[in-house]
Write a structure and sequence with these properties.
Elements (H helix, E strand, L loop, with lengths): L1 H9 L2 H41 L1
């Protein structure tokens, strides 16, 4: 049992996949946040332009 625990602790193959998954999730959240802010900014610009045109 001690040998199995030692192997499990020193195993790194699954850790790498998990780290890449966390990085991908973090980047996805960052991209979605930026795109949402850009959409909000464009909506404000559209409203401002429409009000200026009247």
């Amino acid at each position: 049992m001690k040998l199995l625990m030692s192997r499990f602790i020193h195993e790194e193959h699954g850790s790498t996949a998990l780290e890449y998954g966390l990085i991908a999730a973090g980047l996805s959240i960052a991209i979605i946040t930026v795109l949402a802010q850009i959409a909000t900014t464009f909506a404000r610009l559209k409203t401002t332009a429409a009000a200026a045109g009247n």
